Amino acid sequence: MANDATRQLRNPVLIAAFEGWNDAGEAATAGVEHLERVWNAGAVAALDPDEYYDFQVNRPMVSVDEDGKRSIEWPTTRLSVVSLEEHDRDIVLLRGIEPNMRWRAFCAELLSVATDLGCEQVVTLGALLADVPHTRPVPVTVTASDPDQAEELGLEQSRYEGPTGIVGVFQDAATKAGLDAVSLWAAVPHYVAQSPCPKATLVLLQRVEDLLSLPVPMGDLAEQAEAWQHGVDELAEEDTDVAEYVRRLEEARDTVDLPEASGEHIAREFERYLRRRDT
User: How far apart are CA 110 and CA 92, in angstroms?
Assistant: First the structure.
């Protein structure tokens, strides 16, 4: 791995997302990419892709610059660092691709860099396709090495059992390495699985904000999420079968005691407002 992981960071936390099976609507990786952009992250490390990727599955990309010079970008996983001077804290961002081989070695190498940087907490982001209506708030579930964290965040603890992706494996490896590990999962409506899904990205970043008690600049994500929902509304109106299916999903969802109607949710929203106002 090529890296510059010798710098001393202030109370750093690692936030990670991976393209692939764990990234419905690209909601998770779009979240980390948004943080890279709004926080002006600087690269510190990149994996050697030869060790973990099948280039017939994840092919390298050729690009041509304005001078006609061609270059190849190889698929890999990268880490970058953000310095939040006003909060006296640093954030390590990890964005990559689910590997095709050697998953345990992949996780061990990434966690080695994270611990060298001083990270004691790992937050992974994921998104899955689910039977949820696009017209309702995006459900978020959590898995955590400390079960009490789910209750503190006002989120449902995941009870999923079955095949897992690199997000589940990476969280398990972080927990076994003695790190505080939390995984946030957004549910994306399966009937609009096309990327992107800014509504899911927005809610994941809001939960990161709650978890870290740090204001996250959202930019125009709220406007993108609203435009996305209006677009899906129009598509559903054109197909009576889809419209009826959405209505049934809404009825099923409305029978659940939504956290958005609870005092805990109102309190979280007010705390988020105060953090942003202070910033």
Answer: 11
Per-residue pLDDT, 239? 81
Domains of the chain: 12-218 (3.40.50.10900)
Beta bridge partners of 58: none
d(CA 124, CA 32): 10
Within the chain, where are the H helices? 27-38, 103-116, 148-153, 166-176, 198-212, 221-237, 240-254, 263-278
Q: pLDDT (tens digit, 9 = 90+) per residue, 231-260?
A: 888 888 888 888 888 888 888 887 764 555
Q: What is the per-residue pLDDT for 18? A: 97
Enter the DSSP assignment of 185.
Answer: E
What span, in angstroms and rounded, lies between the C-alpha atoms of 89 and 12? 6
Q: Are 156 and 132 in contact (CB under 8 A)?
A: no
Cα separation, 184 vs 192, whole angstroms = 21
